[in-house]
Every structure is written in C-alpha cells, then in structure tokens.
UniProtKB/TrEMBL annotation:
Pfam families (UniProt xref): UPF0261, UPF0261_C
Secretion signal span: none
Protein name in the entry: Uncharacterized protein
Source organism, top-level taxon: Bacteria
Transmembrane segments: none
Domain UPF0261: 4-176, 184-401
Length: 403
C-alpha cells in the first residue's frame, strides 16, 4: 500500500469523532493525514493540514472568512481548498484513501474533495444525510455513502460502533490489492432494461474479440459517469446504444444526464457507434408524480415507483435534431444506427409504446440534420434488440477502432 488515509472534517465541531476514527485506522497499521475544514471554532488538537492552509488553497484567508461571517461563502472556499489539496496529495502519491464525516455541510465539503480523485481510489463518507438523495454528493464517482443513523455528536455505544465500522472499512479498502486483469481495450456501452438484449449480445461479441466492455445504466448518473470516464481518457471506443437520457432532459423526466450528454466522445475523437435506444420513453416516479401537463399522454406503469411516458411526434423531432447536432461535432470516426422496427422492447407491434409515426419523426429529423461527411448513417430493418442489429453495431465499432 502506498500513501495514507486522508481524514477530512471540521475539527471545531467533530474533533472528538475524527480523533476516534484516526486512532482506529492507525491501529490497523495505516497512517493518516487529517485535514481541518472548520472555520470558526477552536480545536483541542492540531490537524496535519490546518484550516488556514485549506482556506488559502480555496482562494481566501481564514481571517477573511471569519470577518465576512458568510457561511455559504466559507463553505465554497473550504470545498475548493480541500479538493485542491487532496488532488495535490494524490499527484504526489500520498493518498491511499479518503474518509470524511459530517452533516449536510461536512458532507458537501468532504464529497467535493473526493470527487477530485479518480475512480478506484477508496472514498467513504459517513453522513447524516446518506439515507436520502445522495446524487448531489456522489455525482459520477465511486463514493461510498454510509448513514450515521445518529447525529455525529459525541462518542456513544451506537456512534462508536458505526464510526469504528467506517474506520475499519476505509483501512481495509486502502490495504486491498485490486485484481490485475488483462489489459484490454476499454469500450463503454449504455444500457436500459428495454435495450438489454441488444447490449448483452453486442458485449458478448466484443469480449470474444478481445475487448473489455464497461456497461453503464442510462439512468442519468450512468450517462454522466460514462461521459466523465471518456473525458478522463479511460475509454477507447463507445457503443452508445441507449441515448434515452436525452428524453428526460428534453421533457423534464427524472433520469436526465444533463445537456452535455453525447459531448465527450465527440470532443475526444474516439470511435463511437450510436443508436436511438429507448428514445420512446421519458421516466417519472410513481404515477401520481407525472406532471399534470402530461395528463392524457400514453403512460405505462413500469413498476410501483417508475412510470414511463411515450415520447410524441414533436418530442421525437426535437430529439433527432439534438442528437444530430451533437454527433455532427465529432472529430473522430462516428456511425449512427437506426433500428427502423423499433427503439426498445416495448416499441414493437402489439407493445404499449409501438409508435411508427413517432419513430418516423425521429428518424426523419436525424436524416435531415446529420452531417454525412462526419457521421456514417446506417439504417437496418430491425428492432434495436434484434441480434443482427446488435452484432452490426459491434462489428462497426471494431472496424472504426482498428482504423
């Protein structure tokens, strides 16, 4: 193991708890670096990295933060400072893992710093808000969120157990040796439940040909994670079967990956093969959470917590325009596959989202707006989940990667 466990926290309010986990971690034989992100209160012991150092790294002096007396501003400064210092420690090969503990403010600072580290570095956040919506804290990184159950305020029989588990967990992660797998070219693929047969068939074929395939669930966070890995240079080819996250971005669904979806591969110039998987649906929560403006639309109860809405003709026209504009920016090899007999498992004749008119609007918009000099357009008389369609996409990606 190289490096130490970085412990991030506010020593003025969580000093006792931070010292508790520090002693446990060091008792396992792992060294630590404590970073103090508190601003106002006094501390009973000194951190390895002082709050003054953190503040300066974030662009202000500690005295300025105290004088300004603006909690939001102080948090922004300490977040930036903690992230900058953690990134510097990592570059210097001093980080074996990061652990933090706190409430909403401490969680915001700790996880912001963790997001400065690449995927694979152990990251553990013990938080009072870990049982709620953790997406703002986790983002697209492999941050482990651990619910503290009780507030992080003192050491008692319950908190001692929870904090000790966290300390042993991060120490174990840091000591662990990742398995050394064969170094194969990495391909990123996107999948949804209704495009699973396609992606599984394509993945199996690509693996047989000597590639390693990372499959991302197109749930918003999945698309963002893939885009981030592409930007980081991990990915050598993209099989973007499932571009459905753009439906949610357009219509206000709950699984949007943001307006930058489809940007990373185009900018990086890596080979990409793209399709229109699951562009027939927008995702909402339970049926009663569907916005009132969508009353009367074709709604499908996927399960008790997920309701799907069929995209209409106008939305498909807009989706075609958006996707074409994104792919037209590709500086590397790019191919777009159109499944003319349906874009998902439930966009088949007799299925609830069967929509020849809607699909025609999508395909026509793509044909009209696509720059054929930059993007190769391939149309097949298949549903997206037909084996022939999946294999055609996989073979085209290999062809582009070999070039």
């Amino acid at each position: 193991m190289k490096g130490k466990i970085v412990i991030i926290g506010t020593l003025d309010t969580k000093g006792k708890e931070i010292l508790f986990i520090k002693n446990i971690i060091e008792g396992t034989g792992v060294s630590t670096i404590v970073m103090n992100t508190g601003v106002i209160g006094s501390t009973s012991w000194d951190a390895d990295i002082s709050n003054e150092t953190v503040a300066c790294a974030g662009g202000a002096s500690l005295q300025e933060l105290v004088a300004k007396d603006d909690r939001g501003y102080a948090m922004d400064v300490m977040m930036k400072g903690a992230a900058a210092l953690v990134a510097e420690l990592y570059r210097n090969k001093e980080v074996a893992g990061v652990i933090s503990l706190g409430g909403s403010a401490g969680t915001t600072i700790g996880t912001y710093a963790m997001q400065a580290l690449p995927v694979g570095v152990p990251k553990l956040m013990v938080s009072t808000v870990a049982s709620g919506n953790t997406r703002p804290y986790v983002g697209e990184k492999d941050i482990t969120m651990m619910y503290s159950v009780v507030d992080i305020s003192g050491i008692n029989r319950l908190s001692a157990n929870i904090l000790a588990n966290a300390a042993y967990a991060i120490a174990g992660m840091a000591k662990g040796v990742p398995p050394q797998l064969e170094n194969k070219p990495l391909i990123a693929a996107t999948m949804f439940g209704v495009t699973t047969p396609c992606v599984n068939q394509a993945r199996e074929y690509l693996e047989q040909q000597g590639y390693e395939v990372l499959v991302f669930h197109a749930t918003g966070s999945g698309g963002m994670a893939m885009e981030a890995l592409i930007e980081s240079g991990f990915i050598e080819g993209v099989l973007d079967v499932t571009t459905t996250e753009w439906c949610d971005e357009l219509a206000g669904g709950v699984l949007s990956a943001g307006s930058s979806r489809l940007d990373a591969a185009a900018k990086a110039g890596i080979p990409q093969v793209v399709s229109t998987g699951a562009l027939d649906m927008v995702n909402f929560g339970a049926m009663d959470t569907v916005p009132e403006k969508y009353a009367g639309r074709n709604l499908y109860k996927h399960n008790a917590t997920i309701t799907l809405m069929r995209t209409n003709v106008e939305e498909n026209r807009q989706l075609g325009q958006i996707i074409a504009s994104k792919l037209n920016r590709s500086v590397g090899p790019c191919a777009l596959f159109l499944p003319l007999k349906g874009v998902s498992l439930i966009d088949n004749e007799g299925q609830p989202f069967y929509g020849p008119e809607e699909d025609a609007a999508l395909f026509d918009a793509l044909r009209t707006n696509l720059d054929r000099e930059r993007v190769e357009l391939i149309e097949l008389e298949h549903n997206v989940n037909d084996e022939a369609f999946a294999l055609a996409m996989a073979k085209k990606l290999i062809e582009l990667m070999k070039k």
